[in-house]
Amino acid sequence: MSDDVLYGYLVGEDPATSNKVIDEIVETLTKPVNGHKPNSAIDTASSGELELFLEADTEDNLQRTFYKRGWTDGLPIIIPTEERVNAMLAGTSASPDEVVGEYYRFDIKGMVKFTVRNVAIIAVMAGARPEHFPVILAVAATRQQAIMPSTTNFSPMLLINGPVRNEIDINCGIGAFSPVTLANSVIGRAWTLMSTCWGYMKPRKNLWSSLGSNLTYNNMCAGENEERSAWEPFHVQHGFKAEESIVSVFRGWIISNSAGAAANRPIGEEVALQMAAIPASYTQGTVIMDPLVAKTLKETDGFAIKQDFSKWLSDNIKIPAGQYWGYDHVDWMITPMANEGKEPFASWKKLPDDALINPYCDPDKIHIVVIGGETSPLWYASDFGYSGSQSIDRWRSLDSLGECADGSCGVPDEMIEYDE
User: Is 51 domain-assigned?
Assistant: First the structure.
């Protein structure tokens, strides 16, 4: 990014206030500091009880109220009545007042804490059932927001592993990322509604993404197809037991769909070509592949475990250094790190433009996830990084732990009807 462009940002207007950015910087750095006032505020998603209930009204009017107050994702919600919230709370043995996590909000320069009850309200609004609630609590416990305070188009993903997939009918197969399965849809949607109500989902206040991302409607929520995968599950790779139920968070900017493997080259080479076209800004990436792809890579190409394929991609994906540094967001995010001496970026910065580098130089940052219904050998290539995992079992009701610990109990026959 040129000096003229950067200078233009400094002397230009802040889109939120219409003031010059440089004037706001000077004011912030020079105004007196009140030593008796804490630097950051701590707020709660809600406090108290009855005073927080809205007055009784028609369903249509309440839908309009929630929308106008910025409490929805633009779609109709399930109105979170006291009865519905209490029914949702039955899905966990955790205390309703237990603090699940907190978000930092740049716009208020403070923390927003949320409790089990707060998350239950969100779960009802998203259309979830009590059996989905432990997963939603685990997502909340990651303390990561679905929506980020950026002008770019962040895209997140939720991956669910373990017995809970079968217990609550998480789709891991055909159409896993399609809007066809209740559990996938409402769990992912609940994560977005947390950002809507407590975080970075207020346009022109803390939501500045120029284009946005339709993936944030349900955040690519799916389960790994452990039963059909040729390799061990993702959560086992990361130190969890196979019988544990775990949710993992990924996020990045770019995800690219494959159209099928080329007939004149192995699947691995095709994946490598696709990954090479993605700016690997932080040397990270995730390949989401159908079980057919995993089977071919293992049985035909000899990659015994996921890590073998990650290592092969790391060694074989090469691009010219000039191409890497020519990517705009690599330039403005990674160049400062290179100038500070952080490796491998500092060494890459010194290379001639035609020198080849391995942009995915750390195989541990290349993640392989197996999802899909074995109808076609397809995959997604992405720059998604793995942001961490949380236990779902931690939030389950004691009754469900005893009954469904082996993942064999299935979905309850009777659905909770919220319209009664």
Answer: yes
Overall domain count for the chain: 1
The full DSSP string for 9-60 is: HHHSB-TTT-SBHHHHHHHHHHSPP-TTS-SSEEEES--SSGGGSPPP--HH
Backbone angles phi, psi at 102, to 5 degrees: -155, 150
259 vs 333: which has the higher pLDDT? 333
Q: Mean pLDDT across the stretch 21-37?
A: 73
Q: Contact 155/217 with Cβ under 8 angstroms? A: no
User: Within a domain: residue 335?
Assistant: no
Residue 264 lies in a domain: yes
- For residue 112, what are its two tokens? 């927003």
The closest alpha carbon to 193, from 132, 251, 156, 147, belongs to: 147
Phi, psi of 194 (to 5 degrees): -65, -45
The verdict on residue 191 lying in a domain is yes
113 Cβ contact partners less than 8 Å away, ≥ 6 residues apart: 42, 43, 44, 45, 99, 101, 102
Rounded to two decimals, the pTM is 0.85
Q: 196 is in which domain, residue-wise?
A: 42-318+358-396
Alpha-carbon dihedral angle through residues 381, 382, 383, 384, given to the nearest 10 degrees:
-130
Number of helical H runs and strand E runs in the chain: 16, 13
- Its sign, for the CA torsion 122, 124, 130, 131, is negative
Give the confidence band of 389 by pLDDT, cuts at 50, 70, 90: very high
